[in-house]
Specification:
Two copies of one chain form a homodimer. Chain A folds into two domains: about 60 residues, Arc Repressor Mutant, subunit A; about 160 residues, Four Helix Bundle (Hemerythrin (Met), subunit A) (Up-down Bundle). Chain A starts with 10 loop residues before the first helix and ends with a helix. The radius of gyration of chain A is 24 Å and the shape is elongated. By secondary structure, chain A is mainly alpha-helical. The longest helix of chain A is centred in the middle third of the chain and has 22 residues. Chains A and B meet through helix 3, helix 4, helix 7 and helix 11 of A and helix 3, helix 4, helix 6 and helix 7 of B. The structure holds a DNA duplex.
Chain lengths: ~260, ~260
DNA sequence: CCGCTGCAGTGGTTGGACCACTTGACCGCT
DNA sequence: AGCGGTCAAGTGGTCCAACCACTGCAGCGG
């Protein structure tokens, strides 16, 4: 039984993970130089070769920069930043981003939309109407509405982006607000907004479509904030550098229409 | 002349490129086993250590699969448990989407950019300039440039979108074109484009920033297409079994501005 | 015929050696 | 004192020669 049980990961991978964790955890500050390869090898109890392989993988991952004859440095801004350990952007950030991106998408779609697209969009309106009471179904129809508009551009990348943005609708603030977000009045407003967007698309009017989409998402953000203000006692600073502070208003300006 | 000429690329990178080219060129068929590390080392006239480092980088890139005690195999199409199941959007779709989205982001960033952001952006220009010859480093700097602009909006969702779009830069067409995409002239053009964008941002001019970004990405798409089209006077004549299916072109119109 | 064993080949890992490069201290000259 | 060149230490880059662990298969023995 002297078998090497579950040790599937190759050494260099384990070392790389270890070093990467130290970096992420802040043990090695951004821009600082980490110990020499020989030193790392000694500390970790492995050969320098293995350390080098790990460093190479980290270099490819963009977490580290190797300067010959000088040292290995923590990259100031790892391009391959991890997002799995994160709640994702806050609601206001997300809505501001959507306002900007989906606004443009709506404008583009207005020029390319087909009859079949419009029919599919109107179907989502019906679905939302019929989903009366079923929040999950209404949510699904809502999502489909936005994704289908992106699909109307005939650009898979855009559709993917919209879908991904919707997927990010998570985190504490989202779940906290969701329950209060399904009032009859809001449902009606959303339907009206969606219908207006469809109308603009049907008219083939890019400017109107962009405006309608932005108006819609701006309204959502507004309603969102209204439901957040009263019980502000809750620690809105759940995470994120700018969830409820003025910086978000600035991101509002991001999608700023002018 | 004890000086080291212009041969700054680390050995393992050159080896990796060499092997990758052999794979792309079909010398090693998909699924087949390539020569043993010792054999490759002997044939390439380098040490086995360097070959191993190259193999590791190829493994990370997903081009190759290492089976302990068995051999190194050319990875087949499926990248394993990838969520997308397909190659993702084609280059033209992706560039069209980026043109639209990053154009708006640049405009927004122009109104919010700080001195530190500009400094960071200029640092990426230097990095690209210094990365002379090292395509990977240049690529990293390029990515960082675009992501940092998104970060200048102080909206994490936007930064995430840009990063995700870059991440999707995969698939057959991408890898096939990548090798021909690093000419000195194109490098200069990219640098000029980037510099122009930074200037517009520094001037706080949203309209100019949007235009500069769109111009940049449009140029990339144009160069991309030029290298895919037959003729055009340049070299090219990319061999390979009839795989030039420009089905991705469809979406070019989406970002069709003006 | 089947199953086990041993072997050959493969990747995995190691330690040590030497090289080229970067940096900064050092020393001598101006 | 200031300047310039030299040099040594430290670092990553590469190479080498082993040895280990695993896989697959041929060959042996049942």
């Amino acid at each position: 039984m002297p078998l090497t049980m579950v040790e599937p990961l190759r050494l260099y991978r384990r070392i790389a993970d270890q070093i990467a964790e130290l970096i992420d955890r802040g043990e090695f500050r951004a821009g600082s130089r980490l110990p020499a390869e020989r030193e790392l090898a000694r500390e970790l109890g492995v050969s320098r070769t293995s350390v080098r392989e790990a460093i190479i993988s980290l270099e490819i991952a963009g977490k580290v920069e190797v300067r010959v004859g000088n040292g290995i440095f923590v990259r100031t801004r790892p391009a391959g930043a991890r997002r799995d350990a994160d709640d994702g952007p806050g609601p206001f950030e997300l809505l501001a981003a959507r306002r900007m991106i989906e606004g443009e998408i709506a404008a583009a779609a207005a020029k390319l939309v087909k009859r079949s697209d419009l029919a599919a969009l109107r179907a989502t309106l019906d679905a939302m109407r019929d989903a009366d009471g079923d929040a999950a179904r209404r949510d699904l129809a809502d999502r489909e509405f936005h994704v289908r508009i992106a699909e109307a551009t005939r650009n898979g990348a855009l559709a993917h982006v919209v879908d991904a943005l919707w997927e990010q609708r998570r985190g504490e603030l989202w779940t906290r607000i969701e329950g209060h977000f399904h009032t009859p009045e809001l449902r009606l407003r959303t339907l009206e907004d969606h219908a207006a967007i469809v109308d603009a698309l049907a008219a083939g009017d890019p400017v109107a479509a962009r405006a309608a989409m932005r108006r819609h998402l701006a309204r959502v953000a507004r309603e969102f904030q209204r439901r957040l203000e009263p019980g502000a006692g809750a620690h809105g600073a759940a995470r994120g550098p700018a969830d409820a502070d003025p910086a978000d208003r600035k991101s509002g300006a991001v999608a700023g229409d002018e």
